[in-house]
């Protein structure tokens, strides 16, 4: 190889560009992570960039899921809001996610049973609670307005979070208050699941189940992962440190470390 060509080739390889038999190859895309949270983050990055990978929904896929059963890799407890469909925002396909949706991503006995089924019978290794910006259920709880029908029962799950945020962050008002309650409500739901379910606690403590919490940003399409205070506390009162200590985004962890 002539010196100039050699320098060029070395430079290209150093820049991450493969050179094979004189032909240049495009930089290789990052491999899809195999670890559950990494898979969700990878899928969400694709979604936010508008580069969704197609997910198979053909007859063979459906046949395999029917005959071999489901093996989802994550449980996602999310709001029923039409703008936050977990399969879409994480770019996952049939059989990938075990989704429990209810307005305000709260937990009650029935959805706790669904979570326990996924943990104990399907051995799902990751539990995600996903809130989202501009959540109507959280806004209703923050407003304290009179609500009709069954809504008061739902909002009652979020009211203790509002009270706590009022007490710990009395300076927060308006959107900043709502944003904080949305974050703390995710932590509260995770904490409640942990406290109320001996099955979940057992799998978590054996290291067979991991927890993650995030807030989906409606406009950006990105999930901001929350820093969690682990290990969780199984006593009836929530551990004060799990609520964070001040406002702003300091509660967010780097994307790879929920
Ligand atoms: Zn919502």
Helical percentage: 40-55%
Q: How many helices does DSSP assign?
A: 10
- Approximate strand percentage: 5-15%
Radius of gyration: 22 Å
Shape call: globular
Distance between the termini: 49 Å
Alpha-beta content class: alpha/beta
* Global mean pLDDT: 86
Instruction: Give me the CATH architecture of the largest domain, please.
Output: 3-Layer(aba) Sandwich
- Strand segment tally: 7
Total number of distinct structural domains: 2
Which terms would index this structure?
single chain; 258 residues; alpha/beta; Beta-carbonic Anhydrase, Chain A; 2 domains; 5-stranded mixed sheet; two-stranded antiparallel sheet; 7 strands; 12% strand; globular; disordered N terminus; disordered C terminus; binds zinc ion
Q: What is shown here, in short?
A:
The chain has 258 residues and is α/β, with parallel strands linked by helices.
Descriptive report:
By secondary structure, the protein is of the alpha/beta class. The chain folds into 2 domains: 1-30, no CATH class; 34-243, Carbonic anhydrase (Beta-carbonic Anhydrase, Chain A, 3-Layer(aba) Sandwich). The chain has helices at residues 3-14, 36-48, 59-68, 86-89, 109-120, 136-143, 151-155, 159-168, 174-196, 198-205; strands spanning 19-20, 23-24, 74-78, 97-101, 126-132, 210-216, 223-225. The strands form 2 sheets. The protein has a 5-stranded mixed beta sheet, sandwiched between helices. The protein has a two-stranded antiparallel ribbon with strand order 1-2. Helix 8 packs across helix 9 (174-196) and helix 9 (174-196) crosses helix 10 (198-205). It is globular, with a radius of gyration of 22 Å. Mean pLDDT is 86; it is low at 1-22 and 237-258.
């Amino acid at each position: 190889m002539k010196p100039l060509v050699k320098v060029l080739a070395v430079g290209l390889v150093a820049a991450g560009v493969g050179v094979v038999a004189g032909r240049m190859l495009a930089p290789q895309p990052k491999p899809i992570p195999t670890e559950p949270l990494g898979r969700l983050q990878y899928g969400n990055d694709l979604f936010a960039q508008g580069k969704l990978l197609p997910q198979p929904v053909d007859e063979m896929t459906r046949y395999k899921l029917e005959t071999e059963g489901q093996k989802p890799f994550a449980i996602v407890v999310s709001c029923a809001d039409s703008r936050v469909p977990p399969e879409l925002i994480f770019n996952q396909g049939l059989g990938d996610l075990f989704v429990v949706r209810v307005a305000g991503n709260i937990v009650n006995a029935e959805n706790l049973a669904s979570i326990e089924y996924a943990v104990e019978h399907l051995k799902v290794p990751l539990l995600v609670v996903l809130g989202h910006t501009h959540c109507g259920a959280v806004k209703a709880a923050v407003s304290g307005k009179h609500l009709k029908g069954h809504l008061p029962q739902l909002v009652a799950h979020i009211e203790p979070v509002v009270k706590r945020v009022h007490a710990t962050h009395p300076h927060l008002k308006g959107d900043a208050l709502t944003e904080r309650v949305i974050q703390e409500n995710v932590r509260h739901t995770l904490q409640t699941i942990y406290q109320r379910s001996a099955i979940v606690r057992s799998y978590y403590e054996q290291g067979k189940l991991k927890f993650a919490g995030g807030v989906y940003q409606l406009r950006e399409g990105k999930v901001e992962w929350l820093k969690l205070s682990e290990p969780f506390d199984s006593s009836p009162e929530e551990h004060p440190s799990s609520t964070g200590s001040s406002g702003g985004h300091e509660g967010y962890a780097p994307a790879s470390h929920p």
